[in-house]
Each structure stands twice: as C-alpha cells, then as structure tokens.
Design brief:
This protein is an alpha+beta fold. It has one domain. Strand 1 and strand 2 form a beta hairpin. It holds the Pfam family DUF2794.
Length: about 120
C-alpha cells in the first residue's frame, strides 16, 4: 500500500484570495442604497470582489457608467484608510478608516431644500 500526501491548499499563505465587504459593512451600504432608491436617485448596483479590493458600484441606469464607487482596499488600512467613495469622474470624494463617516458624503445628497 502506497501512502500519498494530500495536495497542499491552493492558498496556504493565509492571505485571502479576494477582498469582500463583511455583513455589517454591506448592511450599511445597502441601507444607504435603499434610501437613495426610495428618493429616486439610484436605480441599480453592482458588486465586484477582486484580489486587492471590494467595489460597490451605484448606477442611475444599468447601461451607464457608475455614479459612485464605494471601495474597500485593506492595503490602505494603515495609511489613508481602507474605505473610499469615488465619483463618476474618478475623483476621491471621501476616504477614511471607518465606513460610516465615508458614506456621509453620499447621505448629504438626500438632504434637499423644500420649495
């Protein structure tokens, strides 16, 4: 009888193969998304989980470029902050270490004067 060693795990280094939003982060993002949909501002979204970042993209219509991208980049955790809101033109609107203050830049879009 021959004894064979099992093949090693594909990612034995301990580093994750992709970055994702956890349940609390996703709950906060989807809560904001729901309020913006109810206000008629946003209509669709997409999520991408890549090797170095997780991206939540927001669309006014499905066939357009995203209005905003909410990104989580763990490599920037110790520097600028791992969360960022990026506009349609690629400008960083807000970056930080915590998600709630970063999302506040989008919350202001809900506040409008009443005529």
């Amino acid at each position: 009888m021959t004894v064979q060693n099992p093949p090693p795990f594909p990612n034995s280094s301990g580093a994750p193969t992709q970055v994702a939003f956890d349940r609390i982060e996703l709950g906060r993002i989807l809560g904001l998304y729901g309020r913006m949909v109810a206000a008629g501002e946003w209509r669709d979204y997409a999520m991408s989980f890549l090797r170095d970042r997780a991206v939540f993209s927001v669309f006014r219509r499905a066939a357009e470029h995203p209005l905003y991208r909410i990104e989580k980049i763990p490599a920037l955790r110790q520097r600028q902050g791992q969360y960022a809101v990026i506009g349609m033109d690629g400008r960083v609107l807000k970056r930080g270490h915590e998600l709630v203050p970063v999302l506040a830049v989008l919350e202001r879009k809900l506040i409008r004067p009443i005529d």
